[in-house]
Amino acid sequence: MNKVPMTVAGEQSLREELNHLKGEARPKVIAAIAEAREHGDLKENAEYHAAREQQGFIEGRIQEIESKLSSAQVIDVTKLPQTGKVIFGVTVELLNLDTDEQVTYRIVGEDEANIKEGRISVTSPIARALIGKEEGDVVMVKTPGGDVEYEIEGVEHL
């Protein structure tokens, strides 16, 4: 089984969701199904069908999270030596050489990526171009809008 890189925060977030689903959501939907059964004919009981559908979603999500956690390789970048090299988990400060615009991204696992919060997937074109490079390097990133040149201004292990 291939190990999937994940940050400590990403693992913690998945574990919290799993605990919520198992501890709160699953018991609530089981109670809703029991209550809907008491209302009689199940063929025409919309509450019952909605609760069963919700139960299917919850059970599917629990299996998905457990699978992700079992194949996760949790990387705590704060415990790695700071070499100035771009690796999984670091926060990178970039300068767009065309527009002089500064951007900051944290390179995370696929499930953790959220561009609005500055987290990009390790499999994204930007991250793939940056991995292995060092502070001061100029990197060409192929984007849908064309090639963009970035200078790596800083690499932080946060």
TrEMBL record:
Residues annotated as domain Transcription elongation factor GreA/GreB C-terminal: 82-156
Pfam families: GreA_GreB, GreA_GreB_N
Domain Transcription elongation factor GreA/GreB N-terminal: 4-74
SUPFAM superfamilies membership: FKBP-like, GreA transcript cleavage protein, N-terminal domain
Any one Gene Ontology BP term: DNA-templated transcription elongation
Record-stated family: Belongs to the GreA/GreB family.
Protein name, UniProt field: Transcription elongation factor GreA
